[in-house]
Amino acid sequence: MSTFMKVVKTILLLISGLAIIIIGQLLGEIAYSVVPIPSLPDIVYILVAVVAVLAMNRWVLKIPLEEFGLGKLHLNWWWVVLGLAMPWALNFTMAMIFAGNITFNPNTSFMTIYMAVIAAFSAGMVEELIFRSYMFSTIRRDFGLIAATIIPSVFFAATHLLNGSLNFTSTIMLLVAGTIVGVTFTLIRLATGNIWTAVIMHTLWDTFVADSNIANENALVAIKDATANPGMLLSGGQYGIETSLPGMLVFAIPMIIIFVSLKNRGMIGTNNLK
Fold it and tell me: Where are the domains positioned within the chain?
């Protein structure tokens, strides 16, 4: 396949990935309007994404499931500890910066917890499936590891612009922070051999990171009674604390450590960039 055709293929890949996300969310809302069952939109969203991606792989891409990042889960509990530590490290840091209090949802019933976890899992599952399986695996075959890491990560960040209107500064902060998050989850996928650990860590993040403007309205945790206004760089601007400088560092530090570990293990280098 020529380079031009590979570029066209990649563009179509990005468009189809975004279409799966939008259609899945739309069908979820339609299903809920017909049958108003709690969390039904999230369940439909997951089902649409899984069926669409597996169908595309089976009949178009034909990439082995192991290479596609859908092999067996071999979970090292260190990743779970890291997945829990990251949102809480940011929560406590931001509570100090805002001079506020970390509180749980005042209506933390079983249903509230269930809805929050399902919403977080649907985001983690679909986004890892689309960006770190569907896009990563395909682009890696055509353009190598670097392109497969950067392109889906930047696109992953850009899709979060659909969450709400942002000013220019907040948009740049979201694109930078989102790309760092995307690269981190990609390195986790490389380190573990599949997307499942990244799905778990993504779910833990979305479940426990504090509620912040438009970013994570279903979170169980919030920072209340804040008295300080630290400015956009420390607060995260319009999107919320996930795009703040501390939020970026919470992902950037593990990203660097995982990258160095992979490089020392020979999993990233000039001989295996593809």
Answer: 72-264
